[in-house]
Hints:
Blueprint: H1 3-9, H2 15-23, E1 27-28, E2 47-48, E3 51-52, E4 60-65, E5 96-97, E6 105-112, H3 115-122, E7 130-136, H4 144-149, E8 166-171, E9 174-179, H5 186-193, E10 198-206, E11 209-210, E12 219-221, H6 224-230
Parallel strand pairs: 6-10
Antiparallel strand pairs: 1-2, 2-3, 4-6, 4-12, 5-6, 7-9, 7-10, 8-9, 10-11
Helix pairs in contact: 1-2
The structure holds uracil (URA).
Uracil binds next to helix 5.
Amino acid sequence: xxxxxxxxxxxxxxxxxxxxxxxxxxxxxxxxxxxxxxxxxxxxxxxxxxxxxxxxxxxxxxxxxxxxxxxxxxxxxxxxxxxxxxxxxxxxxxxxxxxxxxxxxxxxxxxxxxxxxxxxxxxxxxxxxxxxxxxxxxxxxxxxxxxxxxxxxxxxxxxxxxxxxxxxxxxxxxxxxxxxxxxxxxxxxxxxxxxxxxxxxxxxxxxxxxxxxxxxxxxxxxxxxxxxxxxx
Length: 232
Ligand code: URA
């Protein structure tokens, strides 16, 4: 791909702006030598304003989403994209979240610009487990684990029973729930169906990929091992 298009597709500016950046010598190789618009260099050897370019298409990143942020590219209020570099919103192909978390749910949230990877993660047949920690309004009664694991639980206005989910009790009002599918507001609706109410919800793991100390509001790029951990 021509240099101008490649850099413009990463969101650094319009094609016109990138042409200007090249003319001004802001696009260089690793030794600081200015590149021309027909230069052909491996992606990792191209610098923009002295910094290596963002990764090419195929980028996957993990964010520790804070409460109060909406998983949308355009909406009112605070958006998860506000926590990423502005240019990520302008990438082509677009950078999407892989599934969503509610505004009032925190924790592990994946993004990618790779449609095939996105579908692999969310496809029902992949059954990637998602681990949530919920704080509840009322003490657990002791019957929830069996109901959630039954494979027969029905949520309001749905026609298909939920797949079996695993509940681990952490404390009287604190539980870990492992889901193998993703339905709208699923964790909150499951606890509501057994007469409880979720007051705090965090996703701690997607497959075997955890947050591993990633601070709230921060993100990191995932390498091949992290990506494999999602399906482990
Ligand atoms: N279940 C919920 O209720 N909310 C989420 O954000 C994710 C799962």
